[in-house]
Design goal:
The protein is built from nine helices and no strands. The radius of gyration is 32 Å and the shape is rod-shaped. With about 190 residues, it is mostly helical. It starts with a helix and ends with a helix. The protein has two domains: about 70 residues, Orthogonal Bundle (Rna Polymerase Sigma Factor, Chain: A); about 70 residues, Arc Repressor Mutant, subunit A (Orthogonal Bundle). It is about 75% helix and about 0% strand.
Length: about 190
C-alpha cells in the first residue's frame, strides 16, 4: 500500500486536535491516547478510501467518534469481575454425565409397571394435577397418588438414589468446582 507523504504529515499534524477531542469524549487521558491510536491505525489502513482534497480532520474526527461509540456500546455490555465471582457462577457441569443419567432414567422408567409409568408421566412430566390425571386414566385421585408414589419409590430403588446430592455433578466434578470457586475467591 502506497501512502503519500502529505497524508502522513497531515495525520501527524492532526494528533493534538484528535487527542483533545478524545479526552473530552472519554474523560481519561490514557483511554484518549488509546482511542487516538486506534483512530490513526484505522485511518492508515483505509487511506485508500480517503479522497484527496476533502477535509482530512473531519474524516479523522468521524473515525474517532465512531470508534468511541462502538467501544462504549461494547463496554456497556461488559461486567467488571475483579474477584471472579461472576465467572464462577457461569461454570457449567459436564454434559456427558447428564446424558448418561438421562439414559439410565429412561431405562429405569421402562422397568416400571405400565400403570405407574403412565401416572408418573402424566403428573411428573406432563404437569397434570392428580385430579386431571385421574380423569384421563379413569380412576380415583387416590389411585393416581398411590401409583405416582410407588413409581417414584421404584425409580429411586432402580437408580440407587439415596439423597438429593446424588443428582448433579459427580463427586469428582463437585471437588473440582469447589476448588475452582475457592481459587477464584482467593485471587
Amino acid at each position: 500500500m502506497q501512502v503519500k507523504a502529505s497524508f502522513k504529515e497531515s495525520l501527524v499534524g492532526a494528533i493534538p486536535n484528535l487527542r483533545a477531542f478524545a479526552v473530552t469524549l472519554t474523560g481519561n487521558v490514557d483511554r484518549a491516547d488509546d482511542l487516538v491510536q486506534e483512530t490513526l491505525v484505522k485511518a492508515w489502513s483505509k487511506s485508500d478510501s480517503y479522497e484527496e482534497g476533502t477535509h482530512l480532520h473531519a474524516w479523522l474526527f468521524t473515525i474517532l467518534r465512531n470508534t468511541f461509540y462502538s467501544e462504549f456500546r461494547k463496554r456497556k455490555r461488559e461486567v467488571e469481575d475483579t474477584d471472579g465471582s461472576i465467572v464462577a457462577k457461569l461454570s457449567s457441569h459436564a454434559e456427558q454425565t447428564g446424558k448418561m443419567d438421562l439414559v439410565d432414567f429412561k431405562a429405569a422408567l421402562t422397568q416400571l409397571p405400565p400403570d405407574q409409568r403412565e401416572a408418573l408421566i402424566l403428573v411428573g412430566a406432563s404437569g397434570f394435577t392428580c385430579e386431571e390425571a385421574s380423569v384421563i386414566c379413569g380412576c380415583a385421585v387416590g389411585t393416581i397418588k398411590s401409583r405416582v408414589n410407588r413409581a417414584r419409590a421404584k425409580l429411586t430403588q432402580i437408580l440407587d438414589v439415596e439423597s438429593g446430592d446424588d443428582f448433579g455433578p459427580d463427586p469428582t466434578a463437585q471437588a473440582i468446582l469447589s476448588t475452582n470457586l475457592s481459587d477464584a475467591k482467593a485471587v
